[in-house]
Amino acid sequence: MRGEDVDMKLARMGDGAEIFYTLQGEGVSVGMPAVFVRVSLCNLHCVWCDTDHTWNFVGTPWVHEKDAQPGYQKHCKEDAIIEMGVAEIAAEVRKYGCRHVVLTGGEPLLQEEGLLELITELRKDGGDWFFEMETNGTRLPGESLMAALGQFNVSPKLANSGVSQTLREKPEVIRGLVASGKAWFKFVVEKEADIAEVMGLVKKGGILMDRVILMPEGRNVAEIDKVAPWLAERCRDLGVRMSDRLHVRLWGDRRGV
Ligand code: SF4
Question: Which pLDDT score, from 0 to 100, does residue 1 have?
Fold first, then answer.
């Protein structure tokens, strides 16, 4: 470990990294102003992933729904990733003057050491920093990161992701996150059959129903609105939270919002 000099691979946006100030668009903190730090690379490859620039690289065998769209090209890895030291990333975060930070990806837990260093570096400023991490629920963070984070937004993947069950289902990890008391579990739902699958995962992972959030799949408002009305009724019947995708409604399928 090299202290503040740990290098991280972040998603590139323009000349810099994908670090931006916006409203949290999903999950239990929806509407909260926060600085987002998007890391690159993921250990899963979901067919509907809305951050495919973090993993759908030229020369990889992964499949994404967009692969078949006219004009879509897999991303050049060298152009899609920017390497930055932790001190440099912290300086970018500080520019926004907001102490609520969302660590997202890709899969942030592939770069656990760097993120722990980033949190440590930012906390040197003092004050009431709060860190959320978005994760796919396949890797359990170590004790130090577990203690440093205020909230996990866990999004275990269903069969609708196109990822094999062996890769995406890790009940022991889910149980560990449940035990932290800091985790909320958000499931992306496309169709009625997904809900039975969610309930199976809830049971296997010992997730409490008051920590379950169902969210409609969709990268634009039309897609979200195909699912949202009936999902709202199902959430009400089941007594679980529903999340919209606020950022998509406000700004569409764009990066940096
Ligand atoms: S786990 Fe998340 S970031 Fe990774 S491919 Fe799936 S949706 Fe995308």
Answer: 44
